[in-house]
Amino acid sequence: MKTRKESIEVLEKKANWLRERFGYSSADPIAPKTVLMQMGVLALFRPMSSSFSGMALKIKHGDSDFRFILVNSDKTTGHQNFTICHELYHLYIQEQFESKICTVGTFSTKDAEEYNADVFASFFLLPSEAIRKYVPDTELAAKSVSLNTVVKIENLFGSSRLATLIRLRNLKLITDANYEDFQLHVKASASRFGHPPYLYEPSVSDSVVGDYGQLANELYDKELISENHFYSLMEDLGFSVESIELEDEA
Fold this sequence. Notes:
Blueprint: H1 8-21, H2 32-39, E1 42-46, E2 54-61, E3 64-72, H3 77-93, E4 99-102, H4 112-125, H5 128-134, H6 137-142, H7 147-157, H8 161-170, H9 176-181, H10 186-192, E5 207-209, H11 212-221, H12 227-236, H13 241-249
Parallel strand pairs: 1-3
Antiparallel strand pairs: 1-5, 2-3, 2-4
Helix pairs in contact: 1-4, 3-4, 11-12
C-alpha cells in the first residue's frame, strides 16, 4: 500500500484527537511513560545502536490489538520521549500498520510515514496551545523566545532541546540565529537555569513500562508468537529459560 505525506494541519488534528481520547487537552503537558500505561502499550527500554531510536509492533487478533514499543535507552531521555510519541503515530494513527524500525526526529520526507510520525510526535508532545501558554506575553509579542523560556518548556513537556527549538521555529517564536545558538551547551544551559540533567542524559539501561510478562504469556497462549519468541521475551525481563521451565514443572 502506497503511503503519502499528510498535511501539517491534519497531523496536528490527529495528535490532538489522540490526546483527547486519553483525557489530555491541547494545553496539558504529558508524561509519555504514563501515557503508555494509560493506553496499555507495553514498552521495553534497552541499549541499542546509536543509529536506532526505537520500533513499534502491533499484532491483531480478532477484535484485540496488542501494541509494543522498543526504545533505545542509550539516547537522551528527551529523545526517548519523542520516540514514544513517534511510535504512537504508527500504533494508533497509521493505517494497516504492523511493525517498523525507526530513527526519529529527522523529519525526512524520503519515507512518508516516518515524516508523518515525526510531525505527529512534535504536536502530540508539544501542542501549539500549550507552548503559547508558557511563553511570556512580552516574548510572544516580540516573537523572540528567550533561552530561559526554552529550557522551561522542554522541562515541562519532557522534550529534547532540538524538538523544542523545531516547534518554536515552526511557530515563528524564535529567530534563526537563536535556533542555532540555543543548540549549543544544552546541559550546561539547563543547569544554569536550575534544571536537573536527567532530560539530557540516557535513562536506566533496561526497564519496562506496562505488564510485559502478562502480554508475553497472552500472546503465547493465543499462539501469536512461537515458544522460542516467548522465551526471548521473558529473558528480556530477566527470567532464564531454565527458571521458566522449572516453574512449569512445579
